[in-house]
Design brief:
about 120 residues, alpha+beta, 60s Ribosomal Protein L30, Chain: A, 6-stranded mixed β-sheet, 2 helices
């Protein structure tokens, strides 16, 4: 199988990693935080705002790979505190209201740039 790098200018530019890798019928989207696509700087805001921004970026990346949010198989979610889980869930469920993907949610000590949310996904085509 061929390994294909996925890139879209509708999502933040990646650092020393790819926005996503397409391999066979799977798409592996790198962890996304709420970075501004124009400036590359973090967008601080509520957990809900960060989550919405991130899930929109993931949607754009999946579309660039020929997929969509309904084809997400698994999400890994990092929250700066599990106290944010309820606020996160309010936004998350609007993107995955039917047949949500498998998921792990982890409370971590620190996320890049002191943000509160980071999400990566695995999806199919």
């Amino acid at each position: 199988m061929k390994r294909e790098i996925i890139y879209t200018d509708k999502a933040p530019k990646p650092g020393n990693y790819s926005q996503a890798i397409k391999y066979g019928n799977l798409i592996f989207v790198s962890g996304q935080t709420s970075d501004d696509i124009k400036t590359g700087k973090p967008i601080y805001g509520s957990v809900a705002e960060q989550t919405e921004y991130i899930l929109n970026n993931i949607k754009f990346i999946l579309e660039a790979a020929g997929s969509e949010m309904d084809k997400v198989l698994k999400c890994t979610v990092f929250l700066s505190s599990l106290r944010h889980k309820k606020e996160f869930e309010e936004v998350y469920k609007t993107y995955f209201s039917k047949n949500p993907p498998a998921r792990i949610t982890v409370g971590v000590k620190e996320i890049d740039a002191r943000l509160d949310v980071e999400i990566d996904v695995i999806a199919s085509i």
